[in-house]
Amino acid sequence: MTEPPTRHVALIVETSNAYARGLLAGIHEFVVTQPRWSIYLGEHSRQDSDLSWLEGWRGDGVIARIENQRTARQVRRLGLPVVDVSAAGLAEEFPVVETDDDAIVRLALQHFADRGLRNLAFCGDSRFGWSNKRHESFMTHTRERGVEPHEFVLRETGTAAVNRRALVSWLRGLPKPVGILACYDIAGQEILEACKIAAIQVPEEVAVLGVDNDELFCNLTSPPMSSIQPDTARTGWLAASLLDEMMQQRAVEPGLHLVEPLRVVTRRSTDVLTIDDPAVAKALRFIRDNAHRAVRVDEVARHVGLARRSLDLRFTTAIGRTTHDEIDRERMNEVADLLLHTDWTLPRIAEHLAFSHAEYMSVAFRRRFGKPPGEYRRTARR
Question: Is the entire prediction scored with pTM above 0.70?
Answer without folding.
Answer: yes
